Amino acid sequence: xxxxxxxxxxxxxxxxxxxxxxxxxxxxxxxxxxxxxxxxxxxxxxxxxxxxxxxxxxxxxxxxxxxxxxxxxxxxxxxxxxxxxxxxxxxxxxxxxxxxxxxxxxxxxxxxxxxxxxxxxxxxxxxxxxxxxxxxxxxxxxxxxxxxxxxxxxxxxxxxxxxxxxxxxxxxxxxxxxxxxxxxxxxxxxxxxxxxxxxxxxxxxxxxxxxxxxxxxxxxxxxxxxxxxxxxxxxxxxxxxxxxxxxxxxxxxxxxxxxxxxxxxxxxxxxxxxxxxxxxxxxxxxxxxxxxxxxxxxxxxxxxxxxxxxxxxxxxxxxxxxxxxxxxxxxxxxxxxxxxxxxxxxxxxxxxxxxxxxxxxxxxxxxxxxxxxxxxxxxxxxxxxxxxxxxxxxxxxxxxxxxxxxxxxxxxxxxxxxxxxxxxxxxxxxxxxxxxxxxxxxxxxxxxxxxxxxxxxxxxxxxxxxxxxxxxxxxxxxxxxxxxxxxxxxxxxxxxxxxxxxxxxxxxxxxxxxxxxxxxxxxxxxxxxxxxxxxxxxxxxxxxxxxxxxxxxxxxxxxxxxxxxxxxxxxxxxxxxxxxxxxxxxxxxxxxxxxxxxxxxxxxxxxxxxxxxxxxxxxxxxxxxxxxxxxxxxxxxxxxxxxxxxxxxxxxxxxxxxxxxxxxxxxxxxxxxxxxxxxxxxxxxxxxxxxxxxxxxxxxxxxxxxxxxxxxxxxxxxxxxxxxxxxxxxxxxxxxxxxxxxxxxxxxxxxxxxxxxxxxxxxxxxxxxxxxxxxxxxxxxxxxxxxxxxxxxxxxxxxxxxxxxxxxxxxxxxxxxxxxxxxxxxxxxxxxxxxxxxxxxxxxxxxxxxxxxxxxxxxxxxxxxxxxxxxxxxxxxxxxxxxxxxxxxxxxxxxxxxxxxxxxxxxxxxxxxxxxxxxxxxx
Length: 923
Known about the structure:
Blueprint: H1 2-22, E1 25-34, H2 35-46, E2 49-51, E3 61-70, H3 71-79, E4 84-89, E5 92-97, H4 118-137, E6 141-145, E7 157-165, E8 176-179, E9 184-187, E10 193-198, E11 201-208, E12 215-221, E13 225-231, E14 258-262, H5 263-268, H6 278-282, E15 288-290, E16 298-300, E17 308-312, E18 315-316, E19 321-322, E20 327-328, E21 335-341, E22 355-361, E23 370-375, E24 379-389, E25 393-402, H7 405-409, H8 414-417, E26 420-434, E27 437-452, E28 456-472, E29 477-494, E30 502-522, E31 525-539, E32 542-545, E33 554-555, E34 558-575, E35 578-592, E36 595-600, E37 611-617, E38 622-638, E39 643-654, E40 656-659, E41 670-673, E42 681-694, E43 699-716, E44 732-748, E45 754-768, E46 784-785, E47 792-801, E48 806-815, E49 819-820, E50 823-829, E51 832-837, E52 843-844, E53 848-858, E54 867-876, E55 884-892, E56 895-902, E57 908-917
Parallel strand pairs: 2-5, 6-12, 7-13, 17-22
Antiparallel strand pairs: 1-3, 4-5, 7-10, 8-9, 8-11, 11-12, 14-21, 15-16, 17-18, 19-20, 21-22, 23-24, 23-57, 24-25, 25-26, 26-27, 27-28, 28-29, 29-30, 30-31, 30-32, 31-34, 32-33, 34-35, 35-38, 36-37, 38-39, 39-42, 40-41, 42-43, 43-44, 44-45, 45-46, 45-47, 47-48, 48-53, 49-52, 50-51, 53-54, 54-57, ...
């Protein structure tokens, strides 16, 4: 009798589970979805695993709209063919070919035992025991939390879970833990940890992770405690599904004007010297253009180079290249990913008008030692990572150095073969995990030396240090604190003219402290607020003569400024199809002494002739104060499951700007703080865009327009000189700058054999410096193209996976030539030639075009291998086009002679070896 009862209970359990699945109703809105995407959508909505053989449905598409439909029926409608059966088994839905799939237990007939048939009775009992054991194999495991003696009634307790991969014991970030009874869940963080708050009692807990078997537990909670779950790989053959761990990686979901790029894509782009370059790669994206070859400057949505903020692990970086832009300042093997904010900029950022480049490095490996590296014809690098305390404390270090002088020696030009170009950079990261805290310490140093024969030499360096602490108070409330110290310095020796030879050192410092807090009111409402302190310190240096130079000593002075900012923001999913992100930032900027300020007669030009008085400010005395309330707003409106509209409005201001008469950032570029005479610049940017995903084909598209208006934009006067006087106000004027444009993007995602994108940008950038008096005008008060006005920019990237080990990449870049001011005539007075110039930026240098290509060959992909190698063969500037960087003129008694200056005018071929110690996927 007892065996019959067991069988009846088992049959009833299976029937109940099937009934539960059949009674579950969902809504479906699918249009020409691939079968894999359709099944993934059903699985997400029902929280059920759905298994099938991908080979049977490779060419199947599904279109179905239903407000309420049973889950089994929804799957069956997607299958279409009657040759497949859809059944529920073991809390999952299975699609099988044919109709012989068992949906119930086999009938059992028991024979009453007889004494003479003892052997048969034993066999019967053996079969029954085997059935019972088989049934119990799938029984729910129990996890006990805390001690029964510590239970405190209905008071909620904190529970910490650790989700690991059972294969290598590595943490699984993004795993989902769901408590059925309270309909509450949470996701594991980067350390695989998940935090819950539950009352004492019994709960059903499910743990899910893509590609892993779903696990179910009975969670018995007594008091505060923790648990560990080890996930196993899923053995079912499923078709590939594209999963976005970060919502911002999905073009339709991401914020307006935001761009993200992974290291994998960065490394697949062809490069000139075998070194993947983050800055050059970003110029392949819409709305971002390079200001010239062999230059580190970028123009983002019509802004100047100094309007972009670069951060690496919260450390500000002022010079983003080595050797005048030929090498990147950041080791690509160290980078995890980077984000570019160029439309909607979160209220936690400030201080720049155009964009923020947020670079995040890899964390140290918490489980095992790893070593990456690469060797190219001109440089070598390595990245080492190792745990100090397993799963708790890890270290990652990187180093790079160049040895390019041997190439310079082979060039016949005597000025070049006697030149030298060298760089090194080092970084160290330490990462420590505490129960509810994560501590990160990061240090960065780069050093460059460049000597152009005996004519001049440059020494310049970036140094930075940051401490970052993340703290989790509850599953809804978390905090992030950081302190960053950054210093950029250069030293120039110029010997081009013996009578004017000079030495000039310079230092700019930017230190920051942040405290940011996040509170999740719900899954659809995230509230953020915080405080941001920025200290600026400039030592503009002393320009002093060298040897026989007759140049006078000029002390350019020191400057200080401090900015305090409070910010708030709220991301709120008001409706399923409507999301807003609104914020505000309130900044107070003070220029500080010590300083000596010159005043001039009102109504007259700022000139030494009209110097009226001087004002002396003591150390830390406030010179001037500026208050900036800034509003940030964006909204996303979903048209359907595949497309959306986005609008954004962003106010920004900038206290620190560059004193440079060129469009690019040079190592010797000086920086200047807003002060008594110069106001901070302020901008308003508006953008509107349409974004659509084509799931089946793997394409993402976007069309986005923008308009940006800037007031108190700083522009230099004709003939400006920032080395011969400490009165910067004599060389500067402020006016209006505005830009507008349209950005188009077509991209194919990375899971396909053919991937890449095409980006086109049409934009214009204008400047107008107008006033009542002629000496307060530039270009007679008329508008003129900004130095970074690039009307047309087109870039394309294609990557083809030829095989598992071989891939091919190519890029194409085209952009309109930059504006220039040309001499248009020459006249003589008493035999002395004088040049008459055109209107400001009236002409343009020739258009720019370049095509690059690379082939990447991987070594053996064996898992257990000491060293995995990768070989990259690249050709930069395949067509050998002589692209002009600039046009300059030489005036002599015979007239004006024009010269075109090109940085790269021949194809540049390089072969790099990249290695990993350990298996192919080692990080």
